Sequence to fold (760 residues):
Amino acid sequence: MTNNHYDAIVVGSGISGGWAAKELTEKGLKVLMLERGRNIEHVKDYTNAHKEAWDYPHRGERTQEMIDNYPVLKRDYPLNEPTLGMWANEKDSPYVEEKRFDWYRGYHLGGRSLTWGRQSYRLNKEDFQANGKEGIAVDWPIRYEDVSPWYDYVERFAGISGSRDGLDVLPDGQYQMPMPLNCVEKDVAARIQKSFKGQRHLIPGRTSNMTEPKPKEGRTNCQYRNKCWLGCPFGGYFSTQSSTLPAAVKTGNLTVRPYSIVTEILYDKDKKRATGVAIIDAETNETYEFTSKILFVNASSFNSTWLLMNSATDVWDGGLGSSSGELGHNVMDHHFRIGAHAMVEGYEDKYHYGRRPSGFYVPRFRNWGGDKRDYVRGFGYQGSASRQGWGRDVAEMGIGANLKNAVSEPGSWQIGMTAFGEMLPDHSNRIFLDPTKRDKWGLPVLAMDVEIKENEKRMRKDMMQDAIDMFEASGMKNVQGYDSDYFPGQGIHEMGTARMGRDPKTSVLNGHNQVWDALNVFVTDGACMTSASCVNPSLTYMALTARAADFAVEELKKGNL
Amino acid sequence: MSMNRRDLLKMIAAATGTAFISSNAMAYITLPMKSVNQTDFSKDDVAFFNEVGEVIIPRTDTPGAKDANVGLMMAIMVTDCYTPAQRKAFTAGIASIKTLAKSTYGKDFLLLSNDERAALLASLDDEAGVFNKKQELASKERKDEEKQLPHSFTLIKQLTLFTFFTSEVGANKVLRYVAIPGRYDGDFPYKKGDKAWAT
Fold:
């Protein structure tokens, strides 16, 4: 039975799980990492990484069969031939939509670290204080200063490229050289700077695509192929496989067990500590138990919450962490799919070379400084400018040699940007265990009851209009605002369902990501977020995980856990 | 607890220093390429699609639709990717080309000269333009949720362009393609006549 005991168990292998495994093994702990899906080995298993459209049976497009098999995924861009198999099987693992909720899950080693958007921004000082100041939900138990050194730490290791802009709203970090703006974006940046008197900024996106190699870690800088989602054979962007997993494996302290669905955290109610986990083998349906001193829960926000809900139910009906009344509540995402696009006149003697897997970023400017709106918080924009390709509207060009020649050359420059808005934590936005439905393994499934409220709806008006104003102010032509509708989950930034706080009566986790009711259980994925900010959240999960792992090992040494 | 396959593998893993307890690693799913036998269409259909495609994207000083065998990929895409409504419209569009050839020239489309083929498809393209514009206006007024299908010739034209420019021939010989650019230059010189990037 000694084989089944470890110093620490990490549930999940995505962005935060990979960091937990790296930090804990490097500090000398024997760690078992449990992954519910299959193994994917770095480089070797990136079977589509070198393919082009013509190498796929349907040129990369979705088939009707794929659409039938993925009733949720089909709603948006992730369903396509190149990334097929990188999303949870929806028939095996269903969920219930009380209200429409688009849930995009990666059930394989590395999780969504292989398919993430890679944009990497820090929360700012205000982000950690706004809840407390505005009396919304609960105050974060930590401040920017608590996380700042951990941002430094994870940025250096992960390899984040970006510019240092000296903006309070978007704190600078430890960056490699930025991916450059193109000639149009540079000019638009200058015009926005001038038109809005230095209150709005257009900067290069900060991304986990590297611009400088990391030879020690066997990683090459980005090669500008823009095929990140297929797994990068160069290790050019941060993923579990390219970055944290090799570091953890190198220690000799890591064991990884794929096909392991963790069904329950084993809980000793007298000691108020977790003793380990129960799992079901996804292939054989056999069950096993593993024990450990500490437990890191990194199964992705909703699945981490699901696991807590299914644990210690003999003590609390609602599961471990439910004594707060907040477990599963306060679901947040980033609302988006709104902004503007425009045509750019001129620059006919300019083009772009290379496929940049990032673009520009316009940091939040609403409700910042002296600005005051009829809603709280704000939004940032992500966008890019480029010349149109062969796929542009060709209705006017007829057929034959003229058509062929015309579309063989690039079209005009165009520019577009999409706003990503902060969503407030609201108790009524919740997930819960559906009382009837079960998955392939007979396990209960989640039901989603989430919607955007008045604050987000008011913000969306600015999210479109401000984009229009900025493009018009910078001389763009045919400026068109758009709102493609947003449904919760589409941001693929699920957060908040086991939030951190200062009081066990109103929060699930304390300031070190420990479950109040089981201090040796740490939840450091998106579930822990007390508020959402408007920036992409993954970098913050990395920093919080490294911070919690450091604390956990110190506490273990002191005999407190 | 009896030792099962996984436990055994785990012991092997421990002995060899491999961190993974896993036997069958799997990658991204890769699907096999398709042949005409796996489509709703015959070899003759594919040949016909190629002839139609060649009128839309002819060989000039660079390869054309037939060189890229767009016909086969059109058959595959229509069979597997189109909705039933799109499939029906596409098939009707092909049929109408055949009918129009007969009624206009009294000959099979395949027996028409290049100029006759071009004139025939150009007239269909004009008709499609008028039809699509009308429909666009109408759907704006109706605010339909459901997207209306464009004219059937537009489907054929779009599919020809798609299958041509996503082909290896189209991307490499008609457009420009670089597998590993290695850098990004957002101020790259361009002069009229330079080809667009394929991706």
